Automatic annotation (TrEMBL):
One Pfam family recorded for the sequence: Pribosyltran
Localization (cell): Cytoplasm
Stated role: Catalyzes a salvage reaction resulting in the formation of AMP, that is energically less costly than de novo synthesis.
GO cellular component annotations of the record: cytoplasm
Protein name: Adenine phosphoribosyltransferase
Length: 181
């Protein structure tokens, strides 16, 4: 957790029973609307990664873009969007992953990275880990080296962060929530 983790967590809104009964949705909108909180959020990532040699920030569609773009700017890295299938106009590489009911896929441009580029993968939240793992596998397939994965929120009880670690990737989360918080 970051030095601002408790503060960031206090600004995130929990919406019970959305999008379906029994789900506690973690809404980052208040975090984005609060300029001091948003600055502390980006600073949390900058402080973590400013000494690490990174070439690229790869951000996952769509809320990962909110973190990834300012972080790439602050760290003087390139920015690569990892998009939902069918959103990129050039030759792409794709990685499919399982959802609770079906499958989805993420893509990136085939020429997104130079071989051996050191890449940080960012998203807003890790729940089951499927999207983050698919993005990391896609980056590895493209010749990039995933240095770490990072997120604002970890929901460890859903098992995603453990799956990510079990697959050999480090995960940094600014804060985490249990189901009863």
């Amino acid at each position: 957790m970051s030095i601002y983790g408790d503060y960031i967590k206090s600004v995130i809104r929990t919406v019970p029973d959305w999008p379906q009964p029994g789900v506690n949705f973690r809404d980052i909108t208040p975090l984005l609307q609060n300029s001091a909180a948003f600055r502390k959020l980006i600073d949390s990532f900058v402080h973590r990664y400013q000494e690490m040699r990174l070439d690229t920030i790869a951000a996952i569609d769509a809320r990962g873009f909110i973190i990834g773009a300012p972080l790439a700017y602050e760290l003087n890295c390139s920015f690569v969007p990892v998009r939902k299938k069918g959103k990129l106009p050039f030759k792409t590489l794709s990685e499919t992953y399982k959802l609770e009911y079906g499958e989805s896929a993420v893509e990136l441009h085939a020429d997104a990275f130079e071989r051996g580029a050191r890449i940080l993968v960012v998203d807003d939240l890790v729940a089951t880990g499927g999207t983050m793992l698919a993005a990391a596998k896609l980056i590895r397939r493209s010749g990039g080296e995933v240095v770490e994965t990072a997120t604002i929120i970890d929901l460890p009880e859903l098992g995603g962060s453990q799956k990510i670690r079990d697959d050999g990737y480090d995960l940094f989360a600014v804060c985490s929530f249990t189901e009863d918080e």
